[in-house]
């Protein structure tokens, strides 16, 4: 038995999954808005309890490291680091955009994972379907949505879009007449894909040093905790 617990808090959802030898045995996803810390702990307890296991039964922890916004992303990464260190087990970090693409499964079109980064920008990466790991076609990036659509329009390949940026900037993404939009169920990182990817990597001995696992904010400003206005108490 090789149990892996997967966590992702890079979007407005908290996702937790448990896999045994790569097969998901329990999973939950809850809308958390800005309450990720409050939702995370009881969700982990529920998932482990439903499978009849304890944290000490785990062989590894896997976590989506973003990109994402500060409020949610740090909760999942910090929780994963604390658990891996306390239990003295390996930690595996995966891009949350990759997890969105992996959750879509086998498709023939180029997969464009894109979600709202606020401030008039989007987080984005493109992939081809792979098993279990999508084949990356671009690095994770934060871009202006109009510039991104201009780039995508210049490509000849058919596309499938997934992520809440499609609804955040509907008029901009509507310009991609050749693109298919995935159902909203696929618009968040898949924690079941996370534990599957992690199981494959763990079997190959590909784990991440704890000191190397940090939230991928992509914007320096998102990595700084707001301190209020200058001169305020």
UniProtKB/TrEMBL annotation:
The record's annotation in Gene3D superfamilies points to: 3.30.420.40
Question: Might you name a Gene Ontology BP term for this protein?
Answer: tRNA threonylcarbamoyladenosine modification
Describe the location of the Gcp-like domain by residue ranges. 31-225
> Where does it sit, as one GO cellular component term?
cytosol
Q: What's the protein called, per UniProt? A: Unannotated protein
Q: Which organism is it from?
A: freshwater metagenome
């Amino acid at each position: 038995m090789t149990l892996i617990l997967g966590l992702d808090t890079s979007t407005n959802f908290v996702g937790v999954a448990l896999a045994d030898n790569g097969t998901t045995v329990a999973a939950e996803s809850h809308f958390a808005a800005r309450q990720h810390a409050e939702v995370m702990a009881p969700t982990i307890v529920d998932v482990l309890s439903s499978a009849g296991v304890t944290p000490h039964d785990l062989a590894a922890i896997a976590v989506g490291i973003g990109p994402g916004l500060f409020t949610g992303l740090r909760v999942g990464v910090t929780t994963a680091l604390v658990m891996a260190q306390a239990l003295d087990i390996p930690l595996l970090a995966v891009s949350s955009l990759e997890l969105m693409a992996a959750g879509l499964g086998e498709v023939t079109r180029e997969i464009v994972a894109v979600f709202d980064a606020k401030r008039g920008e989007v987080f984005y990466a493109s992939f081809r379907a792979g098993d279990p790991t999508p084949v990356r076609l671009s690095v994770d990036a934060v871009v202006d949505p109009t510039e991104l659509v201009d780039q995508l329009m210049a490509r000849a390949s058919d596309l499938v879009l997934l992520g809440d940026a499609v609804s955040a900037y509907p008029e901009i993404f509507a310009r991609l007449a050749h693109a298919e939009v995935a159902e909203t169920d696929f618009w968040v990182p898949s924690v079941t894909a996370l534990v599957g990817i992690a199981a494959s990597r763990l079997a190959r001995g590909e784990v991440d040093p704890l000191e190397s696992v940090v939230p991928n904010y992509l914007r320096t400003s998102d990595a700084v905790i707001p301190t209020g206005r200058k001169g305020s108490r």
